[in-house]
Amino acid sequence: MQTRFLPATDFQRTTRIAVGKAWASATPEQQKQLYDQFQTLLVRTYAVSLAQRRDQDVKFKFDSPKVDANAKDVVVESHVISSGGDNPVRYHLQKSPQGWKIYDIDMMGAWLIQVYQQQFAGQLQKGGVDALIKYLSEHNARSAG
């Protein structure tokens, strides 16, 4: 997970998009806390999803993306094939100086950023950026135990 998934992702962009307009008004320290907490949440979510399939014979199939030479953003479709069937998983990637980076994942028909934008909007309305940081920190503390 740490050596394969993390280097292929742009959690900074994912966090910025999920937090929305409030990101711009957050202090650098708040931005760092949001980024750290959201990265922890996403890594644990992805790890739990993979762990649930560990006793199954799982194969991954990636469709070849059709990418224009000048493209900077692309969706890549993959399939997680197991005894439970063929589950499509789509990845939104953006071209960066370090290569293509994942910034959003569509699992079971829901783009993660959209799901978290809705959750985060409620927390931001209740108490701003500090309330969102507290919410993420508490959620991560519960799931760590």
Q: What does this 3D model show about the protein?
A:
The chain is of the alpha+beta class. It has one domain (6-144): Roll (Nuclear Transport Factor 2, Chain: A), CATH 3.10.450. Helix content is 48%, strand content 26%. It is built from 4 helices and 5 strands. The chain has helices at 11-19, 22-25, 28-51, 112-144, and strands spanning 59-62, 73-82, 85-96, 99-107, 110-111. The chain has a 5-stranded antiparallel sheet. A hairpin with a 2-residue loop joins strand 3 (85-96) and strand 4. Helix 1 crosses helix 3. The longest helix is centred in the last third of the chain and has 33 residues, at 112-144. The two termini are 20 Å apart. The model has no long low-confidence stretch (mean pLDDT 85).
Features:
single chain; alpha+beta; about 25% strand; Nuclear Transport Factor 2, Chain: A
What would you give as the CATH superfamily? Answer: Tgt2/MlaC
Number of helices: 4
Enumerate the spans where pLDDT stays under 50 for 5 or more consecutive residues.
Answer: none
Please provide the ordered H/E string of secondary-structure elements.
HHHEEEEEH
SSE layout and pairings?
Elements: H1 11-19, H2 22-25, H3 28-51, E1 59-62, E2 73-82, E3 85-96, E4 99-107, E5 110-111, H4 112-144
Antiparallel strand pairs: 1-2, 2-3, 3-4, 4-5
Short description, anyone?
By secondary structure, this protein is α+β, with helices and mostly antiparallel strands. The chain contains four helices and five strands; from the N terminus they run H-H-H-E-E-E-E-E-H.
